[in-house]
């Protein structure tokens, strides 16, 4: 696969993701209004913000693959690290958001649980209330996690902001059960986007595509937690919802932070993994074996630049070698190494004699 094909594959999958997010924004937005679910509306707003992440991914993916020129003699690869930093920050923000939300539930739910244990009558009525609410809502898709536990806590006398997610008529909750299909659809679409984007990201050696892929999966998990929360409420453990939310948010924040750390390491010129340097050294050994003027090499250094790597190496020549021969040998080695490892963008050579 050459650079042009990489370019097209990466742009295509990002545009598909962007189109899907636009579709989900409209679908959830319309459904939110139609089914009276403010939670679905909030989810629509999230999909709208995801489009921004897709725009950044597309821009930095394309920019980083521009050939080197006078203003950027080492190419534009680092634009990808900037894009990764941005997309990772979104992922961490999503994790913190879901985590705070889930923690609020845990904190509010604990005293309720205690109160409920003391007065068993309240538990019974709460169960009844919860049971009928779940049946009637069938599970408000996006309100997901919040729905069930908020119902219980609001019934037990704790006012809850999530009550707004449900239309309350004559004291009973009315959420159109069809709303759940939007959460399920969101899981399917986002997981498919994760798989497809991850595949292209690995093939094109693109960190920003990998980061955006993880974002698609985070969206799928968010919707999954929503659906799982409703199931938890049905079996009588509404707190499962909050616990699920905490698990997911920790995962999101962790993967976002580790990708952001990788991007920062790249931007600050921290050497990449030793495996990468080893694979470059292995290829250099093969290449040097074929050029008889070169007696060996030393000091292999790699610098990552988005999908590319810049290599610096010291080549060792005999003291009596002519400048013309040295020049020709260096050119051969540079060309051969770049042919062998397509991610090598430049090869800077120092000369030593021995
Ligand atoms: Zn998202």
Automatic annotation (TrEMBL):
Membrane is among the record's keywords: yes
Molecular-function annotations in GO: monoatomic cation transmembrane transporter activity
Cleavable signal peptide: none
Biological processes annotated in GO: inorganic ion homeostasis; intracellular monoatomic cation homeostasis
Any matching Pfam family: ZT_dimer
Annotated membrane topology: Multi-pass membrane protein
Major location (coarse): membrane
GO cellular component: a single term: membrane
Keyword entries, A-Z: Membrane, Transmembrane, Transmembrane helix, Transport
Subcellular location: Membrane
UniProt KW Nucleotide-binding keyword: no
Sequence ranges assigned to domain Cation efflux protein transmembrane in this UniProt record: 16-112, 163-267
Residues in Cation efflux protein cytoplasmic domain copies: 281-347
Xref: InterPro entries: Cation_efflux (IPR002524), Cation_efflux_CTD (IPR027470), Cation_efflux_CTD_sf (IPR036837), Cation_efflux_TM (IPR058533), Cation_efflux_TMD_sf (IPR027469), CDF_Transporter (IPR050291)
Protein name: Mitochondrial metal transporter
Organism: Coemansia asiatica
Organism ancestry: Eukaryota, Fungi, Fungi incertae sedis, Zoopagomycota, Kickxellomycotina
Gene name of this polypeptide: MMT2
